[in-house]
Amino acid sequence: MNKYIEELTKYLDREPLKRLLMACEDIRTMRVRGAGKIARYAARTLKETCLNVRCNSSTDYINAVKKIARCLVNTRPTAVSLPNSMRFILNRLFEDYKSGIDDVDTLKDLTAKYSDSFIKNSLDAVKTIAELGSRRIKDGDIIMTHCHSTVAVKILQKAWDSGKHIEVFVRETRPRYQGHITAKALASAGIPVTLIVDSAARYFMKDVDLIVIGADTVAVNGAVINKIGTSELALVAKESRVNVMVGAETYKFDPKTVSGELVKIEERDWREVINEEKLKVIGNIKVRNPAFDVTPPQYIDIIVTERGVIPPQAAFLIIQSEFKISLPHIRDPWE
To answer: pTM for the whole thing?
Structure first.
């Protein structure tokens, strides 16, 4: 991060740089959490930071935009929504720049325009997915979910608001307990909620009709990368012949997986699992804390996107359509 700070001091005064670094820290430490919220927060931060760039030429401005985007992208490696928000904005901005627009103020206005456009599209996508996903829920269904996904919550709330009497099992999702956020949101909407420990999924699966979860990333083969424990839940559901529905905006599909690049799984600080005092009591042991896992496509029945409902095997069609994939190597605009 020190390298980025040094590079950015050329383009940003102290206060805008401080706000950018605080935003990066908000994402890295999960003060801002959830793939969609992270993407929108990053887009808003890019906009506000770029409006404060000081430079003498359009070339300098474009270089500054790349460095700011790179600083944001490097905060968390797994959720593709963040880099895809940057791709959405930068690809459009750079097309305008290459077409001959070289006035710095105009480029700043375009950066703001494309950032606002991404945020609006993201919020609209959630509404559409909630509508489409809720149609797949039947009156009387008992549903299980995992972690906290805005999309999954909105699907369940939409089903409830449309008059379907559902009940929801929410796994607490250790070690950060994001399931508590989901439980609160659903209970506030009036939905009957039962909070369970993560390891109780198989015990209650006999009572469950449907699994509804979100996604941090969808790979080209339809595999879903989501909060650790998702793959185990999907496996238990598969064993019990319970369908798994994933809600995912199209900007959560990873274009770089087309060229065979693997999704990097973030491993977070072990202190999220156990504090140092307790660790000393236990003794000399290793503690690991992967934040995500990979659910194979054969454990997923449908993926609900704002473009429609697809089987996981159709993920490539979404990537091809959204990102205009034509080359085996995808070069990021901030490179």
So the answer is: 0.88
